[in-house]
């Protein structure tokens, strides 16, 4: 089965729908089937996005993307620094 990706806004909307359905008395299995996700996915979403609004979820996604970019940049710079230190050590030994 093809895996479906949901945007943070879609996740928040689906969680709000789930909360409404659960408040109306439906059981969790039926709600998850209505949303088209597994119970595990529901709980993972609830843990990550529970209580958020759509714009907050979008901001979180943007911050996570920026954080990943910055981590990659730090890793690249650390590698460059290590290469320069090793080159300096080699030059000193000559």
Task: Characterise this structure.
With 94 residues, the chain is mostly helical. It has helices at residues 8-23, 28-35, 39-49, 54-93. Helix 1 runs antiparallel to helix 2 (28-35), helix 1 crosses helix 3 and helix 1 packs across helix 4 (54-93).
Describe, in short, the structure shown.
By secondary structure, the protein is mainly alpha-helical.
Features of this protein?
94 residues; 4 helices; 0% strand; rod-shaped
Which regions have little confidence, pLDDT < 50, spanning 5+ residues? none
| Biggest sheet overview | none
Count the DSSP helices: 4
The CA-CA distance between the termini, in Å, is: 61 Å
H/E element string?
HHHH
How would you sum up the global shape? rod-shaped
Instruction: Please indicate the percent range of residues in DSSP E strands (runs of 2 or more).
Output: under 5%
Q: Please give the number of β-strands.
A: 0
Helix content: over 70%
The gyration radius over C-alpha positions equals 23 Å
The average pLDDT score comes to 91
Structural class: mainly alpha
């Amino acid at each position: 089965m093809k895996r479906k990706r949901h945007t943070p806004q879609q996740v928040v909307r689906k969680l709000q729908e789930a909360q409404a359905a659960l408040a109306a008395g439906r059981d969790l299995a039926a709600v998850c089937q209505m949303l088209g996700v597994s119970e595990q996915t529901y709980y993972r979403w609830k843990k990550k996005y529970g209580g958020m609004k759509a714009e907050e979820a979008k901001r979180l996604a943007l911050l996570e993307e920026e954080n990943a970019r910055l981590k990659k940049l730090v890793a690249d710079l650390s590698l460059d620094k290590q290469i320069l230190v090793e080159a300096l050590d080699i030059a000193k030994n000559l």
